[in-house]
């Protein structure tokens, strides 16, 4: 099963997969970080599609076409803002991954690429966030045989290292 999880360095907007996941905010109207990069690369049709959806609560996910991206779809999820860990952040972050994999499965999508949701502007500690990401990826891969690949795409080496050590845990 481990072979179905890949960790790579790169820019998620260039990934030619069935869906990439966006670390959005509740407005779904764009922002900085990976959200800004995805909106720039996908083009203005994405903003129109997100506007029509009308927002997304923390821990949930919504899907749009990929528009100008090589990926067919974009799954937008909203991570928790880190407030010290005592405000349900871990459960909310796990819910983001579960909702994203459930949406991918509902659309018959097999290869999904994800950023480290919550670990940038929302300040979720990297080690804890990547442990949740890997645990949820393993659970989704075990439960959904049609899911072929979960690809964690890391912009920087620190994030890449955190995923590698999360992957080594629980092997
Ligand atoms: N490809 C892959 N990863 C990226 C890219 C990219 N092009 N750009 C940024 N990242 C990484 C960051 O390095 C970080 O590891 O995505 C991770 C998540 O960081 P953020 O994008 O800041 O996401 P998050 O912490 O969930 O904060 C969400 O930021 O931009 C706003 O609208 C967004 O308000 C929302 C908030």
Number of domains: 1
Tell me what portion of residues adopts beta-strand conformation: 15-25%
Q: Poorly predicted ranges (pLDDT <50, ≥5 residues)?
A: none
Q: Give the strand order, joined by hyphens, for the main sheet.
A: 1-6-5-2-4-3
Would you tell me which CATH topology applies?
Leucine Aminopeptidase, subunit E, domain 1
The rounded Rg comes to: 14 Å
CATH architecture: 3-Layer(aba) Sandwich
Helix content: 25-40%
Helix-strand category = alpha/beta
CATH level 4 superfamily:
Leucine Aminopeptidase, subunit E, domain 1
Give the structure's gist in a few sentences.
With 171 residues, the chain is α/β, with parallel strands linked by helices. It has helices spanning 33-42, 44-53, 89-106, 126-143, 157-168; strands at residues 5-9, 19-24, 61-65, 73-78, 111-114, 149-154.
Keywords for this entry:
single chain, 171 residues, alpha/beta, Leucine Aminopeptidase, subunit E, domain 1, 6-stranded mixed sheet, 6 strands, 40% helix, globular, binds adenosine-5-diphosphoribose
Please give a structural write-up:
The protein is of the alpha/beta class. It has a single domain, classed as Leucine Aminopeptidase, subunit E, domain 1, CATH 3.40.220.10. It is built from five helices and six strands. Strands 1-6-5-2-4-3 form a six-stranded mixed β-sheet, sandwiched between helices. Helix 3 (about 90-105) packs parallel to helix 4 (about 125-145) and helix 4 crosses helix 5 (about 155-170). The longest helix is centred in the middle third of the chain and has 18 residues, at about 90-105. The protein is globular. Adenosine-5-diphosphoribose binds near residues 24, 79, 116 and 121. Adenosine-5-diphosphoribose (APR) binds near residues 79 and 117.
